[in-house]
Amino acid sequence: MTAMATTPPRTAELRGLTWDHPRGYAPLEELARLDDALPPGCETVGRPLRWDRQPLAGFESTPIASLAPVYDVLVVDHPGLGTAVDSGCLVAMEELFEPAELKGWRERSVGASYDSYVLDGLTWALPLDAAAQVAAVRPDLMAGQARPRTWAEVCALAARVPVTLCLGGPHAFLTFCALCVGRGEEPAQEADAPGGPSGDVLVGRETGLAALDVLAELAERTPYRLRSADPIAVLRAMAAAGGPAYCPLVYGYVTYTRAGPYPLAFADAPAWLPDGPPASVLGGAGLAVSRHRAADVLARTAIRDHLRRLLADPVQRELFPLTGGQPAARAAWTDRWTNDRWGGFYRATLATVEAAWVRPRGPGYPAFQEAASRLLREGLADRRPHGALLDDLDACYREGSQR
Questions:
Q1: Residue 134: beta bridge partners?
Q2: C-beta separation of 309 from 330 below 8 A
Q3: What is the pLDDT of residues 166-199, one digit of tens each?
């Protein structure tokens, strides 16, 4: 793992930061290596961009503003943008690209991948990678079992085969959110917002309690060793000997369709009702630009060229899938060759990604989702009454909203 810098760069070399999983770094590093043999349609950039890596937990929770003084380009998680924009550490993409170019990327991206990086009418990152919570399956352990389509079927399946949830980091809360969205109510909405509760509560009482009932039943079935595991750890455990057979909601990682010793399959997230849509929370990653070299015209030009190259059609459709990346370009998700190579991952989960809910991105939101997730893990482990646990979540939400 490349050591992260602690002081701003003083050379012509540009520096980027991604997260430490092949999905996060392999396409970027391969593209940098291929300067003399790039796919058609990609320009060679004179000034190199060297990538460092941080753990997944850092990608999800480390404030962007603390990294921006060190790095020129950051691979970011969209919920952290509100705090970053408030700090003034990022360059809006409208300063770098013409409206027509931005419009083209928006139209070519899958689901809300582009719009998740738009705040107050400005674009603060460009969609590099796309993901959402989807169902993960061990086909060999599911022999003879139908894949669940609804949460009721998930709970019934848990009595027959080993099932796990993904509860580590912010993911207990994100699973709770997906359950609420599946019932037709988006959490953490402003008072009287369409589709949200009235007042300063996280979610309506009936929806919240129904979500907690399902969450508690499946948390009891989750192996103890996985009750604080992040998506990578859950998928790694599922692909190993003795792993769980099914996880109803975990951020999809295409590389685990070919991981050993037991490759996984992926499917759309469960719905609340038999004819309902899959309910999930959008993930993915975007390319943000630090403001720390805003006065360096040559550096800004090189950064612009690097972003164009990373989002170029040949890179998104060919190089990303070839190296285990998960491109944000919708064309890659529908490409026959790409789906054949990766066990149909993209085709099998496209409906979920297209419909996935975009989290709030206001200042302080990442800290709130971490705190809410911790409350859920502890409350579920202690078998806290669901009404009291929902009260705790509401109090956490009010406290976070006032910061």
A1: 250
A2: no
A3: 999 999 999 999 999 999 999 987 543 444 444 5
